[in-house]
Amino acid sequence: MNLMGGSNRRVLIHENMKPISHSGSIDIILTPQFYTFLREELAIKFAYQAKQIAPALFDDYLEIGKEYQYHVFKSNSYWYFFAYSIDEIISFLEEKGVEAHQVGKIYFAQELASVLEAPMVLGEEEAMQSMGDIVAIIPKRLINPEDDIYQEIDLSKVSLHNGIALSSSYESVIPLKQTVFITTLLVVLGGVFLAEGNRIKGSLENIEAKRDLILVKNPKLASTLIRNSELGKYEPIDKKERLKRDSIKVLSKMLSAKSVLKMLSVDDKSVMASIETKDANSAKQIRNRAKTKKFTIKPMGSGQIQLEKKI
Questions:
Q1: Cβ(219)–Cβ(212) under 8 Å?
Q2: Which of 10, 124, 177, 229 could form a disulfide with 3, with the two C-beta atoms 3.0–4.6 Å apart?
Q3: Cβ 134 vs Cβ 166: under 8 Å
Q4: CB 130 within 8 A of CB 117
Q5: What is d(CA 62, CA 54) in angstroms, rounded to the nearest whole number?
Q6: Residue 216: how many CA atoms within 13 Å on its side-chain side?
Q7: 50 within 8 A of 79, measured Cβ to Cβ
């Protein structure tokens, strides 16, 4: 069921939902199928203190061997504790056509307790209803079909206050899958830096070896003036290698969760890269930085930008 509200589209997440076709950002509302809930009246003042004891509270309720995240907030005199598996949720969303980077905030259906006095249909066999102020999933067979008491809720008119950003579930700024991708990319760039560094070092060693050989065969070249003139022939090689290395370093700083390196080419004439951006703002930032660093900029469509630095 798709539900509109706030700046992002809201989507109620349940096991029998249909695939989603939406390219923008969404906020998701998890049904109890995707979380375990506990309500406790505790003498705790701050949320971070409650979150510290959450794993111990859920010790007898969660599946062994699975990694869980925890969310806590206070409602009246009670602390509300939620345990959920973000990896399981993201995997389910991907099956339904939603990528992790599209998810803005995560809400829990427990916040709907006050409006779920009558059951809400979730597929052919299940419904969701508030049972003693706790939202629960109930089989439809337990509901008398003659009562016809099912309701539809317009969540655009329901206030939700206790959402959590997807990235907060990983306790990082960037979601885990994108972090792994960026880390891998940086490792690749690091390898390029090392290879370039070794090549530059080898070039300098060859230059020094040639210098020493020339000095042995031509003692007159030991003169500082003459020697500097000969070494000047090799300085352009060193400058080219440094320019390649510096250009690659600049390109690496343009990459983020919203800008991905698609192609990198380095030769004796130029350093060329193709970067794919996720939105107009990240594309603008890359163009501004590239312009400052004297790169030639060429838009390629579909959010891709081609950058080139002549050597």
A1: no
A2: 10
A3: no
A4: yes
A5: 12
A6: 6
A7: yes
Q: Distance between CA atoms of 260 and 67, rounded to whole angstroms?
A: 29
Mean pLDDT (whole number) for 202-228: 63
Average pLDDT over residues 140-154: 79
The total of other beta-carbon atoms located within 10 Å of residue 142's CB is 8
Contact partners, residue 123, CB within 8 Å, separation at least 6: 14, 15, 16, 17
41-50 as b/e, with b when 16 or more CB fall inside 10 Å?
A: eeebeeeeeb
Opening angle at CA 119, ends 114 and 122, nearest 5: 115
Q: Report which of 55, 48, 8, 47 is spatially closest to residue 29, judged by C-alpha positions.
A: 8
Q: What is the mean pLDDT of residues 150-172?
A: 78
Question: Locate tokens 């919203």: which residue?
Answer: 258
Beta bridge partners of residue 126, listed in sequence order: 122, 139
Helix axes 176-217, 224-231, angle to 10 degrees: 140
User: For residue 187, how far is the Cα from the chain centroid?
Assistant: 17
Q: How many angstroms separate the most distant Cα atoms in the chain?
A: 111
Instruction: Quick: pLDDT tens for 107-136.
Output: 999 999 999 988 999 988 899 999 989 999
Average pLDDT, whole number, for the chain? 82
- Tally of CB atoms within 10 A around 1: 18
Nearest Cα neighbor of 214 from 230, 228, 202 is 230
Q: How far is CA 237 from the centre of its chain?
A: 40
CA-to-CA distance for 259 and 253, rounded, in angstroms?
10
Average pLDDT value for residue range 281-286: 88
pLDDT tens for each residue of 14-39: 999 999 888 888 999 999 999 999 99
